[in-house]
Each structure stands twice: as C-alpha cells, then as structure tokens.
Amino acid sequence: MTRQNGNLFAFLALVLGALASPRCLALTDPWEFEVYPYSTLSAGMAEFESDNAYVDSGHTLGAEGTSSGTIPSNHLLYNSYEFTYGLTDRVEAALYLNMARPDAAGLRWAGDKFRLRGRLFDQDRLPVDVGWYLELEWHKTPQFDDAVRELEFRPILERDFGPLAVMANPKFEKVLAGAGHDQGVEFGYVAGVQYRVSRLASPGLEFYGGTGLIDQADPGPRQEHYVFPSIWGEFPGGVEYNVGVGYGLTSGSDRLIFKVNLELERFVGRIWKHSSENGWFL
Amino acid sequence: MDCPKHLILKVAAVFLLLFTYEPLIAQEITPLTIEIHFKEHHFTPLKIAVPAGIPLNVKVLNDSHERIEFESFKLNREKVVEAGQSILVHVPALRPGNYDFFDDFHSDVPEGDIAAK
Around Cβ B72, how many Cβ atoms within 10 Å? Predict the structure, then answer.
C-alpha cells in the first residue's frame, strides 16, 4: 500500500469509527439528493439545476426523518433551484434557492445555500481523484430547520474502474447560529456507484445518511440512512436527469422518497483564462 | 425498523476497499500520446486504434474558429477547448473495447471512436 493510500485508509477508518459510535444525530440534506463527482464545470460553463424529492411515506411529527424543523416530513415536497458557474477549470461556485411544499399547501421559501466546489490536480493524477466542497447554508426557522446558519465541508473522492465510478462525499457540518451552535461537528455521508451503460440511461446506487455529532452519535435506530437505486442520463437536447427511489433503512429515516433531478449546461463566457495543465488547485 | 448497523458497516467497508484497492502488480507504463484535431466541424482522425492496457495522453487541438466541448461518455471526460487552443486529457490504461468521443456543444459533429485492442 502506498503512503497516499495509507493516509486515505486512516481517514476512512475514522469515518467508519464515527458510524460505529453509540450515539449520533441525523444529517441528510433532502433538498439535494445528489452525489458529487470529482469533475467540476469547465471555466465559463453555467448549469441550471432543479432537484426535487417527495416524501411519500415519512413521519407525521416535525424534526423526524428528513425534517429538521417543525413541519413534518410526511408528503413533503422538497424543491430546489441551483445555479452553478465554472470560475476556473477546477473551481465552481453555486447558489441555491430551497423551497418546500408541505402537504396541501403551496411552495414556501425554506432557505438558501452558497457553495464552492473544486477538484485537485487533473483526473487520474492521483490513485483516487480528490476534490473539495465548502457550503454556507441558511434556513427558514423554525419551520424547516432549528439551525439558522450552517457551514459544511466535504472531501470528494472518486475512483473509476472502467465503466464503474465509485464516489464518496463524507460531510462535516457545524451550526454557526441557532439551535446547536454550541455543539460540535456533525458527520454525514453521501456516496454512490454509477455504471456507464449509455448516455440515454445508466444505473446507479446512491447512499445518504448521517450519524450526528462526531463525538456523540445518535442511537442506531435514530440515525438516518437511505439507499436510492437510480437511473441517470441525458435527454436529447442536453437536459440531464437523475431519478431514484429512496428507501429508509432505520426507524429514524423516512420510509419512501422519490427524487427527480434535472439539469442543463451551457457556455456563458469565462471570467478567467484556462487553468494551467500542471496546476493543482485553481 | 431496526438499525441495519451491520449492513451500513459492510457498505462502508466495500467503499473503503474500492478506494484503497491496488492491483497486485503495479506497473509504471509511459503513456501513449495521441492527437485529435478539430477542424471544419469534424474530428480528425475519427477512428483511432490504440493498444489496450497502456495509459493515454489525448491531446485535443481545436484548429477551428468555434469553441467545442470535447467529451467522452465512456471515458468519463469533458473539457471545453477554445478556438485555436489545445487541451490534454489523461486516460488510464483501457480495457479492450470502444470508447466514444464527441463535441457536446454541437450535436451535428460526427462522433469519434477510440478502439482499444
């Protein structure tokens, strides 16, 4: 095992340790059931995306399942609009508008997000392609979350085995304002495998969940863990899609979730010149 | 529902193995460099035969006056190439098979093919 792989092994062992801890909190972002790959938008590219998730069978009390506020998750529609722009060939920025439609009610503003995401080096320069993700999120409280502002960091890992791509985004989140601001860092994860069959439609399997505070995990049944079999591809005209059905694996999870993500990319003009072929960060 | 802690740990262990797995015989092979030109709305050459098992450096030279996005679904690569500029795409050693490439900005540009044999 190389030194790089040894470091990676130690890091993932820590993640496994957090999963095995006796107590944790939930940490899933229902506005964005999406696994991030290593690759980012090229400089000057813009992407408009709408992520939608409907909780067909959830919880009837607030702060249970995917709900983090007073509105319960059962029959809740999560709807987000995301605009992403490639700042350089290695760094992109995105703004999100998060909406939600509680049962029999209209769409309401639920919060916003701003994030930066980047990739290090070029593809296949390292044994595992590594990227990073930094997000600032604020919520409509107390309806959709009890925390006002949160900061999230994710390393992004991807490794391709021919047509099979394996991706993992461990999440580390800290509440900056609102309930929980005096607590430590929460741990969650997003992971997936995708098998490239055809541009029109290919299968995937995605995993989402959270164990809560790194040093004080929720009891197992209270944690949230989901598995989403998914189909992804591109319609003629360039609209990309990812649809899936999510099954909750614990009693703390919602039981059944449907998701539909749609996105469209276009070149709108670059601000900075091309990233250097030999660069590693910008 | 019970917490499937063992299932979650097994899935996490599989991810751990996939990320840390290394072939038993690590080989340092010098990549083969191939050039693909884009001119007059066509890639040249359109069909490229390469040996399987050797990493590739694919140099894409955009000799046209239009911006393109060099993309390969099978190779999981996409990169914008400005008019008059070039990019380098690193590709790991390929298994035998056919690998597409196309211009994602212009659907009427004929699709190319890299055949690894």
Answer: 21
Q: Which of A274, A241, A87, A198 lies closest to B79, judged by CA?
A: A274
Dump pLDDT digits (tens) for A161-177: 989 999 999 999 999 99
What is the value of ipTM here, to two decimals?
0.85
A199 is written with which tokens?
Answer: 């541009």
Domains, chain B, ranges and CATH?
32-116 (2.60.40.420)
Q: Which helix (H) or strand (E) holds A17?
A: helix A3-19
Residue A11: pLDDT band (50, 70, 90) is very low
Q: How far is CA A134 from the centre of its chain?
A: 11
- Cα–chain-centroid distance for residue A267? 24
- Which of A124, A157, A251 lies at the smallest CB-CB distance from B90? A124
* B13 → chain A, closest CA residue: A16
Residues from chain B that touch A89, judged by Cβ atoms under 8 A, are 79-80
B81-104 tens-digit pLDDT: 999 999 999 998 999 999 999 999
Which chain A positions have a beta carbon within 8 Å of B57's beta carbon?
none
CB contact under 8 Å between B8 and A5, yes or no, is no
Among candidate residues A100, A33, A25, A50, the one with its CA nearest the CA of residue A244 = A33
pLDDT tens profile A174-202:
999 998 899 999 999 999 999 999 999 99
pTM: 0.88
